[in-house]
Amino acid sequence: MTSRPKKILFVAECVTLAHMARPFVLANTLKRANYEVIFAADGRFDDLFPAIPGKRESVFSIGSKHFLEALAQGKPVYDQATLERYVADDLALFERVKPDVVVGDFRLSLSVSARVAGIPYITISNIYWSPHVIQRFPVPELPLVRLVGVPVAQAVFNVLRPIAFALHAIPLNAVRKKFGLESLGRDLRRIYTDADITLYADLPGLFETNALPLTHRFVGPLQWSPQVPLPAWWGAFDKSLSVIYLTPGSSGSAEKLPLLAAALASLPATVLVATARQWNPTVSAPGVFVADFLPGDQIVKIADVVVCNGGSPTTGQALAAGVPVVGVPNNLDQYLNMTALEKAGLGITLRSGKITPEGLVNAVREVLQNSGYRDRTREVQRRFGKIDAGESFTKALAELT
Questions:
Q1: What average pLDDT does the chain have?
Q2: What angle (nearest 5°) sits at the alpha carbon of residue 127, between those of residues 123 and 129?
Q3: Which member of 42, 70, 172, 231 lies 3.0 to 4.6 Å from 61 by CB, making a disulfide possible if both were Cys?
Q4: How far separated are the first and last CA of the chain, in Å rounded?
Q5: Does 286 score more than 90 pLDDT?
Q6: Tens digits of per-residue pLDDT, 30-44?
Q7: Phi and psi torsions of 197, nearest 5°
């Protein structure tokens, strides 16, 4: 007798594109003969994902603007009331689709709802949010940095960061208590990575881990590019020049993007800009070519350097192509990622709050002229071929079903 396909429910928290893209990539690795896919997400990014795998369900996510503003100010992203609404929405969703396993990406409420419903739960996260990683925490672009400068702000952040993490953990722990679940403690990293199995969308070896549990494992960078047509200007730029790929992503700061793009055009280079709809250009310097979105997987193949917000999706895409990066991070997530990449000699970090056109040009020039960056990223590129995200994910599902 043939058993029915297992129902796998993916729940994306659409505060940024990354949290939609990563479960989308994993869902597409599954063999449809063995699994029935249900994909639940807010609809704000649907135009970039025209072929969602399996059955589509809608689920509420807070606004991206609220999310990014909370990060910028160092405030908790979710309050207790919002998480309670999420839990109720999750449970209603479970009742409708009756999944065998639920897979979430930054859907923190699943730490409660999946346990209440008795459904095995997998979360997608980044290794730098693991409580089992040994690392320092650079102060992100908080208001304090603008008031007192980076050195003083870093000293204050070192003292207050554990307290801030504890405050950020309060809302979910309060919801867990309401449903009779034990507290996850005061470390925000446990909140972000709590699940039956935690999958890290990163390459192993770039972060120092300490006794990583067997239920915490690497699945490798989950690469996604929007399926958009190449712009009309494609092929019109000078292919004899270096190519700089510049994008703020959906969670980077685009305030200085026009100024930075124009500055990069002062180099003997072509600048390809993907604005992620954060900039509607009215003027463009010679050598600068702009689109809302570009197929990043194709662009990195011709790029000599990638300038981005330092987040793991774009840097992972660059490293998979053997291309070094200049990261301009804003929030802590981006700083944690770029700290490791810079330490490994894969790129350069520039603070977004202090960046100048001259500073960016100098950093890009350094990466282009120092062959060590390209050599090290090509070594990392070779490691990409040894990771099979689909195989790792299928193995995790088999352990829970």
A1: 91
A2: 80
A3: 42
A4: 18
A5: no
A6: 987 789 999 999 999
A7: -135, 130
Q: Are 133 and 127 in contact (CB under 8 A)?
A: yes
Whether 105 and 86 have beta carbons less than 8 Å apart is answered as no
Tokens of 165: 């993490």
Instruction: Name the phi and psi angles at 182, rounded to 5.
Output: -70, 155
Axis crossing angle, helix 80-97 with helix 110-117, rounded to the nearest 10: 40
| CA pair distance 40, 269, nearest whole angstrom | 42
Q: Model confidence over 240-256: pLDDT tens digits?
A: 899 999 998 765 566 77
Q: Which two tokens stand for residue 386?
A: 């040894």
Q: For residue 70, what are the contacts with CB-CB under 8 A and spacing of at least 6? A: 76, 77
In angstroms, the Cα distances linking 385 to 24, 320, 373, 380 are 20, 9, 19, 9
Burial zone of 291 (CB within 10 Å; 0-12 exposed, 13-18 middle, 19+ buried): buried
Give me 57's structure tokens.
């369900």
Q: Which residue has the tokens 């504890």?
A: 166
Query: Which residues lie closer than 8 Å to 337 by C-beta, 6 or more apart?
Result: 126, 128, 310, 311, 312, 315, 327, 329
Residue 387 DSSP SS3: coil
Comparing CA positions, the residue from 347, 352, 300 lying closest to residue 330 is 352
- Cα(196)–Cα(119) distance, rounded to whole angstroms? 10
**Which domains are present in the chain?**
6-218 (3.40.50.2000), 242-384 (3.40.50.2000)
Strands 208-209, 133-134: pairing kind: antiparallel
3-class SS of residue 171:
helix
Question: What's the angle, vertex CA 141, arms to CA 143 and CA 43, rounded to 5?
Answer: 105
CA–CA separation, 395 and 400 (whole Å): 9
- Taking residues 75-90, report their average pLDDT: 96
Of 64, 59, 2, nearest to 34 by C-alpha is 2
